[in-house]
Write a structure and sequence with these properties.
This protein is an alpha+beta fold. The chain has one domain: Alpha-Beta Plaits. It contains 7 helices and 4 strands; from the N terminus they run βααβααβααβα. It has a 4-stranded antiparallel sheet with strand order 2-3-1-4. It is globular, with a radius of gyration of 14 Å. The chain starts with a strand and ends in a 7-residue tail after the last helix. The mean pLDDT is about 95. It binds guanosine-5'-diphosphate (GDP).
């Protein structure tokens, strides 16, 4: 169990103007922001980030959508951060997500589900390293 997780606010949620509200929810949930960046992924970068899903039928759609506009990437700190954040954002499909969860409030569909959250301590480190070097962490 680690105290770090990685999140992205996905392009549709950024484009719809939800960045501030989602960052506020993250803080209100007791997650401390350790690093923060706004950027747009190329298709190659989005493909590499989601390479684990490359055999899945939605992979092309996922890569297109994740590279379609700017995202906001962040490293978050809280006790048992990976599980705590996954509980906080809700189920992958916003329609099935817990009431008042980030995905329920700001997700539009299973593809545009507002935010990413790491699924393991190991991936939290890999994903944090994908976006942030040591000088960008606080
Ligand atoms: P997560 O850990 O809850 O983000 O879910 P997964 O690791 O299973 O999937 C990664 C991302 O792929 C999800 O956040 C969704 O945006 C997307 N995704 C998963 N399942 C589907 C699907 O059936 N259709 C589409 N279009 N996207 C999906």
């Amino acid at each position: 169990m680690s105290n770090i997780t990685f999140t992205m606010i996905k392009p549709a949620a950024v484009a719809d103007g939800h960045t501030g509200a989602i960052l506020a929810m993250i803080s209100d949930g007791g997650f401390k922001i350790k690093a923060l960046r706004m950027l747009q992924l190329s298709q190659a970068e989005a493909g590499a980030f989601y390479a684990v899903h490359r055999e899945r039928p939605f992979y092309t759609e996922l890569v297109e959508s994740m590279s379609s506009g700017p995202i906001v990437a962040a490293i978050l700190e809280k006790e048992d951060a990976v599980q705590a954040y996954r509980d906080y954002i809700g189920a992958t499909n916003p329609a099935e997500a817990r009431e008042d969860s980030i995905r329920k409030l700001y997700g539009k569909s299973i593809g545009d589900n507002a935010v990413h959250g790491s699924d393991s301590d190991e991936n939290a480190i890999i994903e944090s390293n994908f976006f942030f070097n040591t000088m960008d962490r606080f």
